[in-house]
Amino acid sequence: MPLQPKPASQSVVEMAQLLLPGDANSLGAAFGGTVIGWVDICAAIAAQRHCRQVVVTASMDDLHFHAPIKVGWTAILKARVLAAFTSSMEVGVTVHSENPITGERALTTSALLTFVALDAAGQRTEVPPLQITTPDEQHAHDAALERRKERLTRRGQGATWQALVATSRST
């Protein structure tokens, strides 16, 4: 029996993080790795909400740092499923900083992540199709299909540089 389509609105996640000094660099701004960790968690929750299965991160694409997040400021993360394939989903995430005094917000980070759903045995399992209800959702879904084709085409192409890095010795 095929799975019933689910609207993207059921996958939406919003979470907030306070940037503390331990997660900042010497310039008083967030470490990129800390922000990436937040992005991965936020996106994983969105993917799990869509499929109601355990999910694992398969890839992260189009990760961009647009502006810093300062110590003491709030990071507001939003995620939602943009497309659902057979056993995988593409999730979009944005991060905005919020000045706690003025309330001013600015886009700081954006990323696209792909997650794979797993069953109880750890094997890929089918995910519900995405119910598309608006032209913007259709456009996002179509763009996700193109990105998926590109990812599948690139699969395995990193072997040369990966071997080079793995065999490099420090001086």
What this model shows, in words?
It is a single chain. With 171 residues, this protein is an alpha+beta fold. It has one domain: Thiol Ester Dehydrase, Chain A (Roll), CATH 3.10.129.10. The strands form 2 sheets. The protein has a 5-stranded antiparallel β-sheet with strand order 2-4-5-6-3. It has a two-stranded parallel ribbon with strand order 1-7. Strand 4 and strand 5 form a beta hairpin. The mean pLDDT is 94.
Biggest sheet strand order reads: 2-4-5-6-3
- Record field, number of beta strands: 7
Mean pLDDT: 94
Number of helices: 3
User: Helix/strand/pairing class, anyone?
Assistant: alpha+beta
Q: How far apart, in Å, are the first and last alpha carbons?
A: 59 Å
CATH homology superfamily name: Hotdog Thioesterase
CATH architecture: Roll
Q: The CATH topology is what?
A: Thiol Ester Dehydrase, Chain A
Task: Provide tags for this entry.
171 residues, Thiol Ester Dehydrase, Chain A, 3 helices, alpha+beta, 29% helix, 5-stranded antiparallel beta sheet
